[in-house]
Design brief:
heterodimer, A: 293 residues, mainly alpha, 2 strands, B: 358 residues, ABC transporter involved in vitamin B12 uptake, BtuC, two-stranded antiparallel ribbon
Chain lengths: 293, 358
């Protein structure tokens, strides 16, 4: 039982990373209407930048806000410069642009920092805490807290600020939003910026555990896509819940299902994507959309 | 991409004066001998036939790789350019064809033509299965599933060691596709000629498929699935069929590629290979068949050129960056791809000279 609980807890902590990345993917999907295949690579780039900043001697109290701002600017810039030209030319072109962004960002990261796996020191130290029979590392607790904070902030912005209202309006109905005088272009860029910032936190938290390399977020991307599929791409809450479920599910599967260990954990998100699309394509929290001519 | 491509100068197949959609099945095949092949393609085919006698076996080997990749990209062109569906996982289907053919030759001792056929069938069936859940809701789901498959395929290959040889893959002492005795051809020459023939047959079949009633149904699906449905096109069946055909063609390229190389390794069929194939398709021009050849040459030769320029340690990454840049630039400035752009240029020049002559 203790073993099971411990596995569930560690599934939840990895699940938080998938949740944050899935939230980022859902944010872009709601605004721009495409899956951003490059969301994971953006997070990897952010993790490398934070590594470089910490190597330069900056304190983590400074690195996190700097990273959030840089990522926001990067995400918004990518949207304005590289995604904007194909907006309105259909989902295929948009998806292809994000595939190009994946290839390009991955190449840039590998060219600057090399392809070797580095160990990144945890921003939260190496101490271990015990709570009854369960053990928690400082990295898991601190990282989890940071991700939760980022997601809460994101949720608050969307729920309670005028900016969030505009963002939601554009996501819900871009045409009406435009008629109300909302600059949809700016909102889309802001959406990409927020997504990149949330993703950056995911990268920062994932790197010390998974090892820092250009491949850092390749597998988490798949898990996050599965999470967003499970929760529903049109629901921010769904993406987060989906991420936690996927984290727990793949952790338990790799522990208790014979043959699914290590890399083969990826079978879990794949099966989830396949089944959800077959059974309930809008996901757990998503709304089914009716197509009208 | 749909709108960008439909705005292209190329006339839609719907404009062809062929018989109406409810004609007999034979009507689908009629263009095989009725529609002429352009002089440019005939010339290219002739060049393909004599090329093996003018360049070295090493260069031929590389050129053969271009042809196998071109077969796969042609399959992707059918899917992306004609049906308006996306696949970010054709590298996995190419790899599935390669591994299937390899296993059938190596473990079961089949002759290579049968093994290639097995590769085609396996990839086609896999494509059909992948297409099943993708039918619901939007075309994005196909992107979602295919990138998942692209990511998971090399892992599965590394895991099922008994069947696939794990991370070291499967090797044969030499390619089973060897020149028959008495022809006086080297193996490389024979392989290249064979691939020229296969690619030609694939391109002719794909062209015929996309010009008949099937092609018009595809066009309707691409432009507006809802409209297609209201016109009596069974959209679900059509999507599945086209995805299966496209996958089978990719498997054909992979099976031939794997056997010519006599080696299959999981790393060759990573997600990045899948995305590279996507670049080849878009950069070459997804709505032209010449684009498949141009795109394939681009992705096969570029890494060589780059390694020669800046050394091989970071050559892979620089090529990946160039693929990404080429993909973006093509989408922004040349939505019909290099082949589409060239075609428009040629027809404009031809039109001008004709007007001047008149």
């Amino acid at each position: 039982m203790t073993e099971f609980l411990q596995q569930t807890v560690s599934g939840l902590t990895t699940g938080l990373v998938y949740a944050a990345l899935a939230l980022a993917i859902a944010l872009v999907f709601q605004g721009t209407g495409t899956l951003n295949f490059a969301q994971g690579e953006f997070a990897t780039l952010a993790a490398f930048v934070s590594f470089a900043l910490s190597s330069a001697g900056l304190s983590w109290w400074l690195i996190v806000p700097v990273l959030v701002v840089l990522s926001f600017v990067f995400g918004a810039g990518v949207e304005r410069l590289l995604v904007r030209p194909v907006e309105g030319s259909g989902p295929l072109a948009l998806l292809t642009v994000t595939a190009a962004l994946l290839l390009g960002t991955n190449a840039v990261t590998a060219l600057i920092w090399g392809t070797d796996v580095r160990s990144m020191p945890s921003p939260f130290g190496d101490s271990v805490y015990r709570l009854g029979p369960l053990t928690f590392t400082a990295q898991a607790l601190g990282g989890g807290a940071l991700v939760v904070l980022a997601m809460l902030l994101c949720g608050l912005v969307f729920r309670f600020t005028p900016l969030g209202l505009r963002l939601r309006a554009v996501a819900d109905n871009p045409d009406s939003a435009k008629l109300l005088g909302i600059s949809t272009g700016v909102m889309l860029a802001v959406g990409w910026g927020i997504a990149a910032a949330v993703g950056a936190i995911a990268g920062l938290v994932a790197a010390p555990t998974l090892g820092l390399s250009p491949e850092l977020m390749t597998n988490p991307l798949l898990l996050a896509l599965a999470a967003a599929t499970l929760g529903g791409f049109s629901s921010r809450l769904g993406a987060v819940v989906g991420g936690l479920l996927i984290g727990v599910l793949s952790n338990l599967a790799s522990r208790y299902v014979p043959g699914i260990g290590g890399d083969l954990q990826l079978v879990v998100p794949f099966a989830v994507i396949f089944l959800v699309l077959l059974i309930r394509p809008q996901g757990l929290f998503g709304r089914a959309s009716t197509v009208r001519a | 991409m749909a709108t960008a491509i439909s705005a292209a100068g190329r006339p839609a197949p719907a404009a062809q004066p062929s018989p109406s959609g409810n004609g007999p099945v034979l009507a689908e095949l009629r263009p095989l001998w009725r529609r002429p092949v352009s002089w440019a393609w005939t010339a290219l085919f002739a060049v393909g036939l004599v090329l093996p006698f003018f360049i070295s076996d090493f260069d031929l080997f590389k050129a053969s790789r271009v042809l196998t990749v071109a077969i796969a990209v042609a399959g992707l062109n059918l899917l992306i350019g004609r049906a308006g569906q996306i696949s970010a996982g054709h590298g996995a289907l190419y790899g599935l064809g390669a591994y299937t053919a390899m296993i059938f030759v190596r473990e079961l001792g089949w002759s290579w033509p049968l093994a290639v056929l097995a590769g085609v069938v396996f990839s086609g069936v896999a494509g059909w299965l992948i297409g099943l859940p993708a039918l619901r809701v939007t075309g994005l789901n196909l992107g979602l599933l295919t990138i998942a498959i692209a990511a998971i395929f090399p892992l599965l290959l590394s895991r099922f060691v008994d069947l696939t040889g794990g991370t070291v893959g499967l090797q044969l002492p030499g390619s089973p596709i060897s020149a028959p005795e008495g022809l006086g051809l080297t193996d490389e020459q024979f392989q290249f000629l064979l691939l020229v023939l296969v690619l030609t047959v694939v391109l002719v079949l794909l062209r015929n498929l996309t010009t008949g009633p099937f092609g018009r149904a595809l066009e309707a699906l691409r432009v507006n699935p809802l409209m297609a449905r209201s016109e009596g096109v069974d959209v679900n069946r059509l999507t599945l069929t086209v995805f299966a055909i496209s996958s089978a063609v990719a498997g054909l390229g992979g099976a031939l590629g794997g056997l010519v190389l006599a080696s299959t390794v999981p790393d060759s069929y990573s997600m990045f290979f899948s995305l590279t194939l996507l670049s080849a398709c878009v950069v070459g021009g997804s709505r032209t068949w010449a684009g498949a050849l141009i795109g394939a040459a681009f992705i096969v030769y570029l890494p060589d050129v780059i390694s020669q320029q800046i050394g091989s340690t970071t050559g892979g990454q620089w090529s990946q960056l160039v693929y990404a840049a080429a993909l973006l630039l093509t989408l922004f400035f040349l939505p019909t791809g290099v082949a589409g752009g060239l075609g428009r240029l040629v027809s404009r020049l031809a039109g001008r000279s004709r007007r001047r002559g008149a």
